[in-house]
Amino acid sequence: MRRWLQQHFASLCFLPFLICLLWVGSVKRSCAANLDLVDAQDDKTVVVLAEEARTGPLISRIQSVWTLAQCEQSADSLAVLLREGTPDLQPYVAISLGWKGAEAVAAVDDLLARLKSPSTFMQATAAWALGRIGNKRAAEGLQALAGANDDLVHFLVSEALSRLDGKDLLPSTPLTRPLQGATFLHVSDLNLEASQLLYSAALTGNGVHWDAITVRPFNPSWSGIGGMPEAEEEKFIRLLAFKDGAPQVDLVLISDLYAGELSYRLRWELWNYVRRGGKLICSSMLFQPCHGSSRTPSGSSYVYNYAWKPFLFDTELPARIGPSDLPIMVGLQPPARGRYLGVKDTGQGEVLVYDMVKNNPHVGAIPFSELTKTEFITWRHLVLGWGVGTPQVDEPLFWHQLFTWALVGPSAFPAGVELEQVPSFKAGQSADLQVITHNYLRDDARMRLTLTLRTLTGETLAEENAALAAGKGASSPCQITLAVPLGVSDEHAELAQA
């Protein structure tokens, strides 16, 4: 018996994990089969979704509630769920009721009761819903919470009261700030030190402060999809809060996360962070499905299938990603010039989604609805969780300009110069450079361009000044000839011979 236990110890230890995995998979399949009925948009769909919201894992019940909110004639069912649902589900029911707007007036009294909940999450979602429903009976209950200490609760109560008065609390102008001294939050499988190193070349001299949220390594045979530890999620939520009307974190960068690793709670927090003036940059990898099959260390086979599920957060995402003509792309060379981008402004904030052409089987722009069906082919390597891997990003100029655009906005790019093709520079010969000047914001069409050719160590080899002209919103091509000297100083002789 002892020998048998020794031989099969690994398999026995892994058995509970397999049982858990199979159970979750069966629940997901059951929920998915019923949730597919949502396309019907009929009374049967509402009944099925309302029932799904009462049973099963929380993540499936949340998805049922959000899908229910997008069905017609579902406000009454949502009101019942708010009254009878479990406390962990009620905040998401409140969000869905807010999405229904004035149709959900029957839920006003129950939402007012939820303002007295000890949970700030419940208070925040109830306040938002009451503001969206717009019934003035809610004013007194909201006023009682106007002095809330929690930042998001205080903001959403103030916003709701403004909506009841027919006003918008948030101005429509984007909230900008300088890149110098900004605070970035990197959400990935890297630790803080690795995050700082990764983007150091792109932010040299800008004094950017970093913080990091680290997810678990991705390895289905060991830990499933990985995901965000509870302590890291709590830290994430705290950092998304504002202080004195300004974000604690100027920019959130989400990279190397798979669909399913960003909880519904975090998406709610990010939705509010962005519209209040936060800047979010994320990889399309977050929205693309990850599926496959493999074997566990004990030899058993398993399958995994993770896909993006829509939520309120999706209203802030770009409609599509594709080739971009934003000023930040000017001056970049391939492959950086070929990056796919999608940008959407919401409230005072902005969301940018980036990807590489090589990861897309499509040609041209990809609608967001199609992006969520396109498998991402790049795997997150296990050792990146330990800060081992690519030390610095490729194309630091792209990242510098992307960060600048997100924080400073278009004003940081009044004009741009694009070099169509870098010529071969040979000692003692002149090189013709085909240049395109873009005037994005300047009222004055006159510009002066200085072209400098330097060695790798910074010594100037040649320089040429040229007067250019391009009207506001226009582009102008021109040719500039740069004379390359015959020789350089001794320490650069090797370069000159090359």
User: How many strands in all?
Assistant: 17
Query: Which spans of ≥5 residues are poorly predicted at pLDDT below 50?
Result: 1-40, 381-388, 490-498
Q: Shape, please?
A: elongated
Order of strands across the main sheet: 2-1-5-6-11-10-9-12
Polypeptide structure, described:
It is a single chain. α4 runs antiparallel to α5. This protein has helices spanning 2-35, 43-52, 58-69, 75-84, 90-100, 108-114, 120-133, 139-143, 151-164, 192-198, 220-223, 230-239, 264-275, 368-371, 396-408, 493-497, and strands at residues 183-188, 209-214, 242-243, 246-247, 251-254, 279-283, 290-295, 301-306, 320-323, 340-346, 349-355, 366-367, 415-419, 430-439, 446-454, 460-469, 475-483. By secondary structure, the chain is of the alpha/beta class. It folds into three domains: 25-164, Leucine-rich Repeat Variant (Alpha Horseshoe); 183-323 and 340-391 and 401-412, no CATH class; 415-497, Immunoglobulin-like (Sandwich), CATH 2.60.40. It is elongated and about 85 Å long. 35% of the residues lie in helices and 20% in strands. The strands form five sheets. It has an eight-stranded mixed beta sheet, with helices on both faces. It has a three-stranded antiparallel beta sheet with strand order 13-14-17, with no helix packed on it. It has a two-stranded antiparallel ribbon with strand order 3-4.
Keywords, separated by commas or semicolons:
498 residues; alpha/beta; Leucine-rich Repeat Variant; Immunoglobulin-like; 8-stranded mixed beta sheet; 3-stranded antiparallel beta sheet; 17 strands; 35% helix; elongated; disordered N terminus
